[in-house]
Amino acid sequence: MTSRIGILGAGAIGQLLCWQLRHHQPILLGRQAAPDCFIHTDLDGQRHRFSPQYRQLNDKKLSDIGLLIVTVKAYQVMDALLPLLSSLSADCAVLLLHNGMGPHLQLAPVLQGRDLLLGTTSQGALREASGRDCWHVRHTGTGLTQIGLLNGNPARSKSRVQPLLDAIANAEWTEDILMALWQKLAVNAAINPLTAIHNCRNGELATAGHCATIQAIVAELVTTAAADGIILDESALLARVYQVITLTANNFSSMHQDVAHGRQTEIDAINGFVVSRAEALGIDTPYHRDMMAKVRALGSVQ
Ligand code: KPL
């Protein structure tokens, strides 16, 4: 039976999903046993304690997993997933849920016919503490979650992912998931590097001084996506970027936080994905290249 849900990646989103899916008894796959976890939710002010079910990454018994949700960062996907593939059943569906784009291009050819789903979530989740005995994750907002099929069997993959869509508020099945991911990419490609470079909260990008750069970032992305077969509405996308800037005005973007904590950033999967697709298609994207160079120069580990 391949009815279990596995979650690969015990970061804040992985732990939050584990709790949201608790009635389906998901399995958290990791290097170490998962301790009890507290989910502090700003939505109802409650604190929920739960004990994730845990299985070690080198456990060869993964054949009962029917849906593997991968919540590691884009740059970790291939290293985390490849060693597990031979232990997964031939019909296990894989769902990638990370910021940015790119790993699906490497993963699709090696999945050997398994369904490949892609998704994006704007659920807010912060890991506040992760000791040996207990983890604490704060659920800060419901944001939109979109999931869709890239390759495989639509009916089978939709039924595999339905428990997840039911468990999260504001989650929807998305027919054109690549279009949704390019749209989300535009938001991250404008906000994340600029907040990291200027060491500011998202809201500061609403000032006039950033307007030309944001417009150019969106325009280059729209041109690249069009050459890649995805037609985006440039003015609607620009409006969406500014809407997110307003709605998350007080937040520090994930890239700002990565730089501030000396962690590897997701620049390669965000502006780097646009640059590499553009290069492959013979398009120049000087603003995205500039964002990459400036974020790399900030000195966090790349
Ligand atoms: O997704 C985000 C991120 O920080 O990675 C945004 C939408 C920019 C919110 O901060």
Give a written overview of the molecule:
- The structure is a single chain.
- By secondary structure, this protein is an alpha/beta fold.
- It folds into 2 domains: 4-175, Rossmann fold; 179-297, N-(1-d-carboxylethyl)-l-norvaline Dehydrogenase, domain 2 (Orthogonal Bundle).
- The chain has helices at residues 12-20, 77-81, 103-107, 154-167, 177-197, 211-227, 234-247, 254-260, 271-280, 286-297; strands at 4-8, 27-30, 36-41, 47-50, 53-56, 65-70, 93-97, 116-121, 124-130, 134-141, 145-151, 171-173.
- Strands 5-2-1-6-7-8-11-12 form an 8-stranded mixed sheet. Strands 4-3-10-9 form a 4-stranded mixed sheet, with helices on one face.
- Strand 11 (145-151), helix 4 and strand 12 (171-173) form a beta-alpha-beta unit.
- Helix 5 (177-197) packs across helix 7 (234-247), helix 5 crosses helix 10 and helix 9 crosses helix 10 (286-297).
- The protein is globular.
- Residues 99, 187-188, 191-192, 202, 244, 248, 251, 253-254 line the site of ketopantoate (KPL).
What's the mean pLDDT score? 93
- CATH topology name of the largest domain, in short, is Rossmann fold
What is the number of strand segments? 12
The SSE string, one letter per element, is: EHEEEEEHEHEEEEHEHHHHHH
Strand content: 15-25%
Counted by DSSP, the helix tally is 10
Structural class: alpha/beta
Quick structural gist:
It is built from 10 helices and 12 strands.
Strands, helices and their partners?
Blueprint: E1 4-8, H1 12-20, E2 27-30, E3 36-41, E4 47-50, E5 53-56, E6 65-70, H2 77-81, E7 93-97, H3 103-107, E8 116-121, E9 124-130, E10 134-141, E11 145-151, H4 154-167, E12 171-173, H5 177-197, H6 211-227, H7 234-247, H8 254-260, H9 271-280, H10 286-297
